[in-house]
């Protein structure tokens, strides 16, 4: 029965309608039984919960931001990428939803099994390639007869772009994306059976004045080992996890045994570019450091101490005289 609570006036009205014959109790029972039956399509098996879909959305929103930064640097033009939708559907339906001739990149993501498909609308792919070749980002659509040079440029561009997925997925699994195939006809890519569930992440992308879609298809077999990591409970555990005393001790031990460069600065000076170009063997450069003044000792690139030069046996040495105040934020 429904969980709705009726008021006393509604109960009285219902009893009155039943007693007068305006409503039939048998019809009410029949309707209640019919409401319990839900249509289930086994071809569209829902293997991911809403919570897991939300987690995937968050992950790929970060992926979209990383791609925006990457393509902006590579193409040197206005780029905007955002997640449009995240859906689960049969693989056959995904293949039918994309153009018959398009740009398809296939990746492996070890240690996970299976392959991921990155489908790029030809208009977007050609606009990107035009920018790489020095154009204004204009688009044409002749994907059915790509030349070897065009194929090589597109492969290189999207192979490096997909490396950003490693950073986006770092919160749930450490992967190493490898591009394994480049195709233009989706009918040649039967990676899973037609009825297998896949996650399709659709990204809106704008390259200059050209807009289009990038679709990423992730089969269920790829995500199956890490599905527990997609729950909100896992995300909260990872964000609130504190290091144990043993981990802190190990970290401190590794830090205390790290190698650091210690350098004593004999002095510095400045000369013109003209004088620099005229330097020759035997020339002397005068430094701004007095002979009896202490030297600055640097740890890494940070000035930390004052010292004086000398010798220990036959080796050059530096004796620490004082701590340089203001050497770091703590003044140590």
Written account of the structure:
One of its GO terms (cellular component) is plasma membrane. Strand 5 and strand 6 form a beta hairpin. This protein folds into three domains: 8-38, no CATH class; 50-240, Chemotaxis protein chec (3-Layer(aba) Sandwich); 256-323, Surface presentation of antigens (SPOA), CATH 2.30.330. It is elongated. The protein has eleven helices and ten strands. It is an alpha+beta fold and 332 residues long. The longest helix is centred in the N-terminal third of the chain and has 26 residues, at 50-75. The protein has a six-stranded antiparallel beta sheet with strand order 1-5-6-3-2-4. The protein has a four-stranded antiparallel beta sheet with strand order 7-8-9-10, with no helix packed on it. Helices cover 36% and strands 24% of the residues.
Which features characterize this protein?
332 residues; alpha+beta; Surface presentation of antigens (SPOA); 6-stranded antiparallel beta sheet; 11 helices; elongated
Describe the secondary-structure layout.
Elements: H1 8-20, H2 25-36, H3 50-75, E1 79-90, H4 91-97, E2 103-108, E3 115-120, H5 122-132, H6 148-161, H7 164-168, E4 178-183, E5 197-207, E6 210-219, H8 220-223, H9 232-240, H10 245-256, E7 262-265, H11 273-277, E8 295-299, E9 302-312, E10 315-323
Antiparallel strand pairs: 1-5, 2-3, 2-4, 3-6, 5-6, 7-8, 8-9, 9-10
Domain Flagellar motor switch protein FliN-like C-terminal: 254-324
Protein name: Flagellar motor switch protein FliM
Subcellular location: Bacterial flagellum basal body; Cell membrane
